[in-house]
């Protein structure tokens, strides 16, 4: 049986990740055997699993030339530029918690990449079993710069400047350069001693070129205590970072909108019926807002990815309650995450991570059609790419929400009607169920893709 | 003899780097060495502070029990 190496797994010579029959495995090379045995036999692995910091794995093969492990399979892979402030913050704190635990067992993380964290619902987990190296006394933390570029710089920018600066991670997918972060941060950030040290002064040192490795001697001793101090000061700094305002028009949408309770109930009943029939493994709830319908779908689906372009909504959903079935994700559908990295092959685009068994597009398409001038033909093509089954709401021009979108602009949307909507979607989908909501002529459609 | 020492030092330092596939960055490396003393001090202060706190707490509890 042929194995397919995961394109992102090429940096670490100690092993790589591969696919076999749709299952993810990790191959460990002999160069990592000693570290791997220490991880497994020292008690560190058990401790990390017990504290739910690391994903568990099973050894499936052990030979002299390699060890193959099968890690817990993750329902959906996400990337740091799709996370909200608190998601990235919890990922940073998980990395530091893993490092602290590793230090107590005489090991240390040899990298601190944000891509080593994945979320299962709202629960962050460290996924790279090969990141653990034996602790070498007298040596600074090899992953310190990476941690600062992957976590500290974006978090400081999101906290002190604007949450949208997280999108810099798309351009700098291997971490925001510290000198850039330092230049973008306000002068007030210099007053914070930890930010001054780990970001501003640290950034100045990036510009220096040191031709020779400094001698490690008793005057420049960097022992375990210093590593613990480094981890703890970083932890305190990350914990001190907060987002200023987490309120928006959209996170009070369910309270402020003009829906009647009866309409909302009909909508929930419709989703329940469809989900019960399909029993989807993976649901994408697009424009999920505060996740009301994601929660309905999650009762019948294995996993729901709740996407919204509003940071406050997604962040609130993430902070609501610890759970492992709904993954909040900060996505702008008009510009979804592109493929990134070496040969555009390291990080998959959002669309490449589909299709979902069921896509919910409730009170969404009028924003894309009128707010972003996307035609129904384009929308139908988009949904064909991402959805096997589709649950979609059509909102006519007579609806106050659509009228509001057209208040200050010329109505160039002559083709915006239920007939054109149906004509465009019928090209790729078959309607299986339709209900009319009493609310301003809105309709709900359940569709499945034509084979 | 000197040659042996040089080789031993070389091997020792090479072995210490065997697991580091990531470039730590020369600036970050030197910077950590410079702040190492402060980091150790922060851990020590925290440890002493914890000890002082628990000492005071124990004394307060004992005094309360005696009362």
3D structure, described in words:
The complex is a heterodimer of chains A (451) and B (67). Helix content of chain A is 37%, strand content 19%. Chain A has 451 residues and is an alpha/beta fold. Chain A has a seven-stranded mixed beta sheet, sandwiched between helices. A five-stranded antiparallel beta sheet of chain A has the order 1-2-3-5-4, with no helix packed on it. In chain A, a hairpin with a 4-residue loop joins β4 and β5. Chain A is globular, with a radius of gyration of 24 Å. Chain B is mainly α and 67 residues long. Chain B contains two helices and no strands. Chain B is rod-shaped, with a radius of gyration of 23 Å. At the A-B interface, α4, α7 and α8 of A face α2 of B.
Write the layout of secondary structure elements.
The complex is a heterodimer of chains A (451) and B (67).
Chain A: E1 4-5, E2 15-20, E3 23-28, H1 33-41, H2 44-50, E4 57-62, E5 67-71, H3 85-104, E6 107-109, E7 117-120, E8 123-126, E9 132-134, H4 144-160, H5 168-171, H6 178-184, H7 193-207, H8 224-240, H9 253-256, H10 261-278, E10 282-286, H11 292-298, E11 303-308, H12 311-320, E12 326-330, E13 356-361, H13 365-369, H14 376-386, E14 387-394, H15 400-405, H16 418-426, E15 429-436, E16 443-449
Parallel strand pairs in A: 10-11, 10-13, 11-12, 13-14
Antiparallel strand pairs in A: 1-2, 2-3, 3-5, 4-5, 6-9, 7-8, 14-16, 15-16
Chain B: H1 2-16, H2 26-66
Compact description:
The complex is a heterodimer of chains A (451) and B (67). Chain A has 16 helices and 16 strands.
Strand content range of chain A: 15-25%
Widest sheet of chain A: strand order?
12-11-10-13-14-16-15
Pair of chains with the largest interface and how many residues each contributes: A-B, 45 and 26 residues
Radius of gyration of chain B: 23 Å
Q: Which word captures the global form of chain A?
A: globular
């Amino acid at each position: 049986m042929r194995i397919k190496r995961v394109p992102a797994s090429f940096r670490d010579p100690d092993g790589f990740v591969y696919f076999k029959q749709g299952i993810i495995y990790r191959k460990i090379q002999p160069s990592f055997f000693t570290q791997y045995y220490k991880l497994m036999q020292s008690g560190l692995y058990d401790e990390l699993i017990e504290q739910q910091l690391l994903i568990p794995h099973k050894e499936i093969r052990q030979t002299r030339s390699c060890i193959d492990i099968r890690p817990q399979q993750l329902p959906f892979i996400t990337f740091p530029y799709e996370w909200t402030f608190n998601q990235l913050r919890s990922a940073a704190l998980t990395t530091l918690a893993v490092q602290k635990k590793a230090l107590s067992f005489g090991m240390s993380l040899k990298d601190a990449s944000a891509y080593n964290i994945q979320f299962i619902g709202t629960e962050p987990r460290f996924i790279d079993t090969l990141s653990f190296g034996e602790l070498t006394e007298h040596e600074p933390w090899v992953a310190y710069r990476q941690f600062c570029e992957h976590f500290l710089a974006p978090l400081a920018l999101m906290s002190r400047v604007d949450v949208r600066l997280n999108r810099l991670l798309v351009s700098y997918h291997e971490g925001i350069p510290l000198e850039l972060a330092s230049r973008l941060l306000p002068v007030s950030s210099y007053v914070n001693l930890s930010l001054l040290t780990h970001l501003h002064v640290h950034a100045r040192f990036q510009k220096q070129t040191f031709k020779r490795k400094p001698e490690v001697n008793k005057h420049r001793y960097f022992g375990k205590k210093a590593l613990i101090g480094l981890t703890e000061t970083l932890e305190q700094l990350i914990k001190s970072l907060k987002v200023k305002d987490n309120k928006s028009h959209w996170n009070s949408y369910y309270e402020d909108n003009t829906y009647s309770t009866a309409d909302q109930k009909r909508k929930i009943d419709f989703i329940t019926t469809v989900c019960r029939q399909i029993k989807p493994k993976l649901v994408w709830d697009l424009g999920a807002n505060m996740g009301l319908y994601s929660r309905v779908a999650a009762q019948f689906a294995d996993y729901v990815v709740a996407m919204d372009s509003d940071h406050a909504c997604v962040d609130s959903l993430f902070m609501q309650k610890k759970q492992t079935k709904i993954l909040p994700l900060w996505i702008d559908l008009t510009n979804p995450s592109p493929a990134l990295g070496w040969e555009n092959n390291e990080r998959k685009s959002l669309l490449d991570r589909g299709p979902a068994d069921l896509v919910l597009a409730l009170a969404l398409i009028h924003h894309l059609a009128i707010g972003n001038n996307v035609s129904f033909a384009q929308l139908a093509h988009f949904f064909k790419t991402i959805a096997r089954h589709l649950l979609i709401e059509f909102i006519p021009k007579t609806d106050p929400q659509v009228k509001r979108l057209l208040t200050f602009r010329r109505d160039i949307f002559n083709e915006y009607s239920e007939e054109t909507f149906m004509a465009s979607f019928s090209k790729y989908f078959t309607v299986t169920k339709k209900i009319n909501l009493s609310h301003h002529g809105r309709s709900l459609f359940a569709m499945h893709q034509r084979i | 003899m000197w040659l042996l020492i040089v080789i031993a030092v070389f091997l020792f330092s090479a072995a210490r780097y065997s697991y580091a596939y990531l470039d730590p960055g020369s600036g970050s490396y030197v910077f950590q060495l410079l702040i190492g003393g402060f980091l150790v001090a922060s851990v020590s202060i925290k440890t002493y502070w914890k000890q002082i706190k628990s000492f005071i707490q124990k004394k307060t509890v004992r005094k309360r029990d005696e009362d």
